Amino acid sequence: MSKLATFSAQASKHIAVFFGAGLIKPAPGTWGSLAALPVFLLVHLYGGFSGAVLATVAVIFIGVWAIEKETRGKTDHDPSEIVIDEVAGMWIALLPVSYGAQIMGASILALYPGWIVAFAAFRLFDITKPGPVGWADERDDAIGVMLDDVIAGVMSAIVVVAFAALYHIILT
């Protein structure tokens, strides 16, 4: 095997398990979602909302590549240790928090209720797989593995926006 092929195989494995988060038991998806939080914080602090959007899009595309490499030729198209899809979904769920912090000129950590709602909603949608999340999960390919979490992330982002609106209506 060439050095490039060896590097590619190692890189895809590390990315797919999000540098070991997916190897933590029990509930590797929850661990992957938790591991996504501090990395998203750093992305936001150094890149703002636009950096968070770009990083999220990059994670989706790189994640599909890694998932494809790690599941090629295997019967299980979505092994539990692959959590890069949870990272992408969690980051999507947090985009409204990043945007809100940027437009308000506030510390993203000051919007901690948004972090909590994003995490709780994402885990709920990722575990229960309602509607389009379940549809995407039924795909038997790397895109399906990523897509169910992307859809769960979008649904969670909508919940975050709804909770923020409700909070501001009630308290202001």
Evaluate the radius of gyration. 16 Å
SSE order: HHHHHH
Mean pLDDT: 94
- Gross morphology is globular
Question: What kind of sheet is the major sheet?
Answer: none
Tally of helical runs: 6
Poorly predicted sequence stretches spanning 5 or more consecutive residues: none
Blueprint (SSEs and pairs):
Blueprint: H1 3-16, H2 28-71, H3 84-104, H4 112-128, H5 132-137, H6 142-171
What would you note in describing this structure?
- With 172 residues, the chain is mainly α.
- It contains six helices and no strands.
- Helix 1 packs antiparallel against helix 2 (28-71), helix 3 (84-104) packs parallel to helix 6 and helix 4 packs across helix 6 (142-171).
- The longest helix is centred in the first third of the chain and has 44 residues, at 28-71.
Summary, kept brief:
This protein is mostly helical. It has helices at residues 3-16, 28-71, 84-104, 112-128, 132-137, 142-171.
Question: What distinguishing features does this structure have?
Answer:
single chain, 172 residues, mainly alpha, 6 helices, 77% helix, globular
